[in-house]
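// run 5 | inverse folding | seed 20
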């Protein structure tokens, strides 16, 4: 299966080169595709046993991500002596579990003291021994694809001498248990929350529909100016960025962007917004999620493995977003927009 996947990735690369970043050589694109393919095959391998939070397999994944961060050129966050932000997660049954976010830093080499956060969760749901046949939930698209895209994004930007903002690349733990890793960081931040300009999470970016190559969508598109900014920049590179897949699914609240965007919103607040149509005052940072998933049936299924990932499309998206970020000016300001559901204010 791995050989077939590699053949498909190589063949699809030939179709994707026309949408590669302007200024990138064919060898650069090929190198990123080969790296991304290798990274995907590591993270989504049966040997990782579904990357469940608290497992010995996930402890190994943490160290693997740290090494990749070092290879890319990501540093530890200023004031920290480790890439690991350790915390205690809890399973759905309340069992305490050892967990850790993996946090990397790329300085902007500029005068700005602001930050932009890009991330994805590296945990998944493990193994279900009650199933017949395949029992391992490899989580290739959910969300090894996001971790790989985050690292390609970071690798793309590490080549530049200067960035518009300082960059945080985060691999979150315990997302599958209720966004616990990103919540922990938002409540115990390694950087001042009022210095975070904006950001996005990669969420299921590995399996596009055949008629939706070079097309992604973003949650919370009506909430901030990040959406029109990225949409315009991606269009220049042959990528479409659509509004959220289905507003009724509440996807803005179901990814690791939510703990940052809704810093002080509790369940009752959200319930009043959606059930009682009451506009809520919320403190938050414009943070969103980007995906290419459009309802395919592999979500939380054992067949979500490396063989279904379109690596060239994933790499092209990560590189395109890297160029879009690099193209921002240092005085770019991402603003909350007036909308019918929330009255957002930034943390002070």
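// decoded
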């Amino acid at each position: 299966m791995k050989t077939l996947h590699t053949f498909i990735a190589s063949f699809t690369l030939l179709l994707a080169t026309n949408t590669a970043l302007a200024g990138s050589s064919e060898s650069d694109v090929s190198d990123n595709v080969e790296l991304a393919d290798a990274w995907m095959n590591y993270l989504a391998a049966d040997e990782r046993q579904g990357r469940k939070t608290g497992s010995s397999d996930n402890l190994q994944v943490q160290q693997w991500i740290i090494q990749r961060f070092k290879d890319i050129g990501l540093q530890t966050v200023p004031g920290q002596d480790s890439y690991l932000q350790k915390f205690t997660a809890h399973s759905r049954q309340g069992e305490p579990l050892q967990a850790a976010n993996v946090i990397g830093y790329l300085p902007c080499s500029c005068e700005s003291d602001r930050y932009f956060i890009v991330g994805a969760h590296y945990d998944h749901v493990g193994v279900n021994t009650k199933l017949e046949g395949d029992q391992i939930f490899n989580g290739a698209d959910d969300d090894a694809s996001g971790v790989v895209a985050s690292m390609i994004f970071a690798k793309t930007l590490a080549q530049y001498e200067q960035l518009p903002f300082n960059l945080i690349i985060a691999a979150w733990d315990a997302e599958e248990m209720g966004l616990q890793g990103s919540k922990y960081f938002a409540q115990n931040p390694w950087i001042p929350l009022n210095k975070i300009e904006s950001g996005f999470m990669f969420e299921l970016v590995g399996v596009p529909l055949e008629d939706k190559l070079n097309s992604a969508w973003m949650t919370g598109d009506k909430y901030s100016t990040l959406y029109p900014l990225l949409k315009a920049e991606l269009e220049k590179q042959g990528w479409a960025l659509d509004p959220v897949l289905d507003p009724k699914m509440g996807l803005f609240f179901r990814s690791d962007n939510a703990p940052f965007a809704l810093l002080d919103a509790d369940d009752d607040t959200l319930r009043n917004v959606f059930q009682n149509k009451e506009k809520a005052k919320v403190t938050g940072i414009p943070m969103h999620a980007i995906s290419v998933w459009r309802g395919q049936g592999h979500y939380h299924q054992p067949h979500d493995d490396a063989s279904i990932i379109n690596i060239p499309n994933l790499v092209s998206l990560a590189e395109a977003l890297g160029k879009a970020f690099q193209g921002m000016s240092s005085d770019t300001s991402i603003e909350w927009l007036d909308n019918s559901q929330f009255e957002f204010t930034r943390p002070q």
